[in-house]
Amino acid sequence: MRPPEGIDKIGIILNPLFLNKDNRKKYFDPNNKIEVHSAGVFTVLTIKQEYFNIFFDYQKQIALAIYELVKKGIFNFPDKGALTLWFIYNFSQYFILRIVSLEFYSDWNEDDVKVEPDMFRYTLDEAKDEDCLYRYVTEDNEVTDTFYSNDKSLSKYDRSSFICYNKKKKDIKEKQISHDVINNYARPTRTEFRLYADNTPWLHWDNL
Predict the structure, then answer these.
(1) Which of 9, 28, 174, 207 could form a disulfide with 103 if both were Cys (CB 3.0 to 4.6 A apart)?
(2) Is 136 found in the same domain as 67?
């Protein structure tokens, strides 16, 4: 069962010093709990909620995720025998350049969260002008149950610091989770607070 709140996703720029430049693989497990992608000249490791256990140290779990990348050949390290989990945990600077995103989530019953009509607008410009939420409307003019903070960009690379949406509907649409699991969601409404390197100075390894 999903915990009702926790960390949804962590984004980490990997230190390029020992990265295997020939790597082209993006996904490393069938459930896509860990993935690696390019962001300009950098390589970003994304670790998703499903990977984490909320009862264990997050630094150690991140070190474990990097250890899995090491075993897959993502890093070329001079002495591979030294690449133990303990080494990665204690010398994270060899593998992590910086933390670039940290997203927190809370799941709610549908009746727990209500966005009143005067709290949102249907266009992003109006939401910015009136300092309220933006209710997402698709290109086909379908009004959704998704609300963004007005610092969102219309770019596909969403940068909103807050979002409220129906997690159950989203997961059904994306088809990455079995319907049996989705139908057992006790709290289908999700809110997320998203910290990025450009909206907070607190994204640092020591703060995890």
Answers:
(1) 9
(2) no
Distance, in Å, from the CA atom of 34 to the CA atom of 45, rounded to the nearest integer, reads 7
Residue at which a domain ends, from 104, 131, 166: 104
Mean of the pLDDT values across residues 140-161? 81
Query: DSSP letters along 88-157, please?
Result: HHHTGGGTEEEEEEEEEEEEE-GGG----GGGEESSHHHHHHHT-EEEEE-TT--EEEEEE-TT--SSSS
Indicate whether 203 belongs to any domain: no
Q: In what order do the strands lie in the sheet with 34-39?
A: 34-39, 42-48, 5-14, 96-108, 189-196, 162-166, 143-148, 133-137, 120-121
Q: For residue range 29-82, what is the model confidence (pLDDT) as tens digits?
A: 677 889 988 888 899 999 998 899 988 999 999 999 999 888 888 887 766 666
Residue holding tokens 């670039």?
Answer: 100
Does residue 33 fall inside a structural domain? yes
